Amino acid sequence: MISNDIYQAAHLLYKDEVVAIPTETVYGLAANIYSEKAVKKVFELKNRPFTNPLIVHIGSKNQLDDLAEKVPEIAQKLIDRFWPGPLTLILRKKNKVPDFVTGGKETVAIRMPNHGKTLQLLNLLPFPIAAPSANPFGSISPTSPDHVAAYFEHTIPMILDGGICQNGLESTIIGFENEVPTLYRLGSITVEELEHEIGPIKFQNFEENKTIAPGMMNRHYAPDTLTIVSTNIAEALHLYKGKKIGLLLFSPNNNYKNVAHQEVLSVKADLKEAAANLYAALHRLDAQNLDVIVTEQFPLEQWGRAINDRLKRASHPVSK
Ligand code: AMP
Ligand code: MG
């Protein structure tokens, strides 16, 4: 049921239920972090491996001391600048943070989301919530209540309606191993914004460290339809001639013919707008019964980096 009632959402969360909540990034499947029963349901609903840790969402910066052992100076700088907002910090956890939330890790991922309704909800609750994206593990993330309903309408009691997600792309994840700021996942806060604030950051090798974050798995965020990323769209369209083709473009281009369905992510070629529209466009494309989705490479800067990262994973072959 899609509803506006934050009190009902709070009530359900109290009762160890799972509720879908809006954030500025994507919709999440929320559970009380101290309820093993509720957190277990989240993993089961998503079909997500229990070893993959969840992000803990808090409603005010004060709650951080309760959960994290020590906040490095650089992390504090990022909190002051970007919270509430789409930046997740990996910090050394306090003992009270349950292992079933962190996948047994000594660290915990924390962020304060920037969504009015969810902040209101969080501030009604005496506990933080764990909330991974509200989609089955590996599939396209949801950026509207309808996307969530398509996945979980019959298996969760409530979807809290917060409209369309403004940023539309997951949070950026950064850790501080040995006090070195290290990027674990590209996301809604750009590398440029982070480096402007704290100087150079280290890039985790996204290919090799598969176990660190599920968002770093080769195939993720993926439509059911075969998806390819091409540096030469005309050539790709020729290759799939006669097939039912869906085309995903950054900005308008009238040169491409014979496509069954076309999505343009930003009429004015704005990367932030393109990022916000990415998942909704992939959902629409995936619903068209296409033979193939052809997408282009985005500029390797700002939000273009995260878009390319998601498209690369969306197009990664299914492993057998
Ligand atoms: P999701 O909510 O599905 O977008 O995924 C949450 C992301 O946070 C995943 O990529 C997790 O692996 C990552 N994450 C959560 N906790 C930790 C942690 N302690 N160390 C590293 N990554 C984490
Ligand atoms: Mg996810």
Number of strands: 15
CATH architecture of the largest domain: Alpha-Beta Complex
Biggest sheet statistics: 11 strands, mixed
Report the oligomer: single chain
List segments where confidence is low: pLDDT < 50 over at least 5 consecutive residues.
207-212
Kindly provide the radius of gyration, computed on alpha-carbon positions and rounded to a whole number of angstroms: 19 Å
**Helix vs. strand class:** alpha/beta
Q: Shape from CA axes?
A: globular
State the CATH class of the largest domain.
Alpha Beta
Q: What is the terminal-to-terminal distance?
A: 36 Å
Q: Helicity, in percent?
A: 25-40%
Look at the structure and give the mean pLDDT. Answer: 94
Number of helices: 11
Write out the distinct hetero groups bound to the structure: adenosine monophosphate, magnesium ion
Q: Report the order of strands and helices.
A: EHEEHEHHEHEHEHEEEHEEHEEHEH
Strand order, sheet with most strands: 1-8-2-3-7-4-6-5-9-10-11
**What is the CATH topology of the largest domain?**
DHBP synthase
Task: State the CATH superfamily name of the largest domain.
Answer: DHBP synthase
Strand content bin: 15-25%
Describe this structure in words.
With 320 residues, the protein is an alpha/beta fold. The protein folds into 2 domains: 2-203, Alpha-Beta Complex (DHBP synthase), CATH 3.90.870; 227-315, Threonylcarbamoyl-AMP synthase, C-terminal domain (Rossmann fold), CATH 3.40.50. The protein is 31% helix and 18% strand. The chain contains 11 helices and 15 strands. An 11-stranded mixed sheet has the order 1-8-2-3-7-4-6-5-9-10-11, with helices on both faces. It has a 4-stranded parallel sheet with strand order 12-15-13-14, sandwiched between helices. Helix 1 (6-14) crosses helix 6 (116-124) and helix 10 runs parallel beside helix 11 (303-314). The longest helix has 16 residues, at 271-286. The radius of gyration is 19 Å and the shape is globular. The two termini are 36 Å apart. The model is unreliable at 207-212 (pLDDT under 50). It binds adenosine monophosphate and magnesium ion (MG). Residues 132-133, 141, 215 line the site of magnesium ion.
